[in-house]
Amino acid sequence: MTDTRSVVEAFFGFRAKNDIDGLLTLIADDADFHAFGDPGIPWLGSYTGPSGAAEFFGLLFKGITDTGTEVDAMLVDGEEAAVFGRVRVNVNAVDKPYESPFALRLTVRDGKIVRHHVFEDSYGLHEVWRRG
């Protein structure tokens, strides 16, 4: 599995199962992760490589429970993929729902993800987190 679409589809398969070990098989040593938003929310921030990805996904999977996230479209151009959809989760620390459109930029080289940048309504997440 080296083409971008196959890697992205595998990524979402592992992601749907909260399978960190599976996800890590797809992460390059120098992968650049960014989840933009309030640095007070544990999983938001910048991470590098498999160890950073393990930390990110560990915090994310502890912090939220998926309640119906949907992928609407995936666009692939060479190494680049853009995925659009709607995230629906429960924020576990405050036991409140959060919903937002999202865009995820993934770059795949040699069958590994080298860039993972996620964009969503980080202010909305901040409000859910802070107001609990």
TrEMBL record:
It comes from the Bacteria. This is SnoaL-like domain-containing protein. The lineage of its organism: Bacteria, Bacillati, Actinomycetota, Actinomycetes, Glycomycetales. Residues 8-116 form the SnoaL-like domain. SUPFAM superfamilies: NTF2-like. Gene3D superfamilies: 3.10.450.50. InterPro entries: NTF2-like_dom_sf, SnoaL-like. Pfam families: SnoaL_2.
